[in-house]
Amino acid sequence: MAKMLKGIDVILYERVQSGTDALNRPTYTETATTVENVLVGEPTSDDVVRDSDLYGKKLAYTLAIPKGDTHNWEGCKVEFFNQTFQVYGYVTQGIEDMIPLDWNKKVKVEHYG
Fold first, then answer.
1. What's the pLDDT at 2?
2. pLDDT tens digits for 61-99?
3. What per-residue confidence (pLDDT) applies to 69?
């Protein structure tokens, strides 16, 4: 019997601009939302080295986001495995109808604090 792929629940702290500070820089509030069925992938050592060289970030995991998800993941904190991570870089997205599985977006996260 074949096992079906199933992701885990991830808490996404979505950032929404709530105003500006005294220097006219944007200020944000965070809203916690549970996103179900997120795949968590371990990066290769080559991925870790490349992201360190390109972005100055230590890639901890790559998350596959389920199709139909409309949350803004860029720059947000996420929690899973009883740890907190920070999304960095851009969300990469494939054409939903051309991908046979349940996930069509990816984000990279680094360990946070």
1. 55
2. 999 999 999 999 999 999 999 999 999 999 999 988 888
3. 95
Task: Tell me the C-alpha to C-alpha distance, in Å, between residue 110 and each of 37, 95, 98.
Answer: 20, 26, 29
Residue 2 lies in a domain: no
Residue 77's nearest CA partner among 48, 38, 110 is 110
CATH classification of the domain holding 78:
2.40.10
Answer whether 58's CB lies under 8 Å from 110's CB. Answer: yes
Number of domain units in the chain: 1
Please identify which residue in the block is written with the tokens 């360990």: 111
pLDDT band, residue 3 (cuts 50/70/90): low
Q: Nearest 5 degrees, angle CA 113-CA 105-CA 91?
A: 55
Domain range for residue 49?
8-111
Copy the structure tokens of residue 67.
Answer: 């199709």
CA-only gyration radius of the chain, Å? 15
